[in-house]
Design brief:
This protein is mainly alpha-helical. The longest helix has 17 residues. The relative contact order is 0.10. This is Cytochrome c biogenesis protein CcdA.
């Protein structure tokens, strides 16, 4: 479990350094903007 978590942190860091993370987050924000909480 710790190795998987460490690997995920490394991948996330690489994505942040390359700018891919920002692109992915921007796409997810535009995709999820149409959802409304039904409470």
């Amino acid at each position: 479990v710790m190795r998987i978590g460490g690997g995920m942190m490394i991948v996330t860091g690489i994505l942040l350094l390359t700018g891919v993370w920002a692109t992915l987050m921007q796409q997810m924000q535009s995709w999820s903007s149409g959802f409304v909480v039904g409470i």
